[in-house]
Amino acid sequence: MNVQEIMTRDPACATPAMTATDAANLMKREDTGILPVVEKEGSKRLLGVVTDRDLALRVVGEGRNGDTRVSDIMSSGKITTAKPDDTVDHVMETMGAEQVRRIPIVDERGDLVGIVSQADIVLKARDNHKAEQTIEEISAPAGPVGG
């Protein structure tokens, strides 16, 4: 089974110029804990991601206000991604190895086409044992925070 069969297509996205408050409201409206960050409105070029955890730690935890820009709090750089034609097994292995709960799916140009979450894996994957193993790997302690 390929990841395109289980991914959420066209997920809601943030832009770097969006405020933390706007990102949090979009997460609330979309009932998600992650927003892929794209270059600008209407673009699908993936730059990074912003998560509910980023909002908690990098805005609230650092005493910033809701006007903080997504560009200041998003995760960027080496973002773990997958391709639509990657196998679900490959994506599960990647999620476990990288200890990430969600992976943006990008095409050959690096444009966002979807996202896969651990819930997609659990609900839609055919191999329940492999799905359980993936969740255990994602949730395994990674060491001290900040270390």
3D architecture notes:
The chain is α+β, with helices and mostly antiparallel strands and 147 residues long. β2 (34-38) and β3 (46-51) form a beta hairpin. It has one domain (3-139): CBS-domain, CATH 3.10.580.10. α4 (88-98) packs parallel to α6 (128-139). The model has no long low-confidence stretch (mean pLDDT 88). The protein is globular, with a radius of gyration of 15 Å. It contains 6 helices and 6 strands; from the N terminus they run βαββααβαββαα. The protein has helices spanning 20-30, 52-60, 70-73, 88-98, 118-124, 128-139; strands spanning 8-9, 34-38, 46-51, 75-76, 102-106, 112-117. Helix content is 37%, strand content 18%. A 3-stranded antiparallel sheet has the order 1-6-5. Strands 2-3-4 form a 3-stranded antiparallel sheet. The longest helix has 12 residues, at 128-139.
Briefly note the structural class of the backbone: alpha+beta
What's the level 1 CATH class?
Answer: Alpha Beta
Please tell me the overall pLDDT. 88
* CATH fold category name: CBS-domain
The main sheet orders its strands as 1-6-5
List keywords for this structure.
about 150 residues, alpha+beta, CBS-domain, three-stranded antiparallel beta sheet, 6 helices, 6 strands, about 20% strand, globular
In terms of topology, how is this protein built?
Blueprint: E1 8-9, H1 20-30, E2 34-38, E3 46-51, H2 52-60, H3 70-73, E4 75-76, H4 88-98, E5 102-106, E6 112-117, H5 118-124, H6 128-139
Helix pairs in contact: 4-6
Compact summary:
By secondary structure, the protein is an alpha+beta fold.
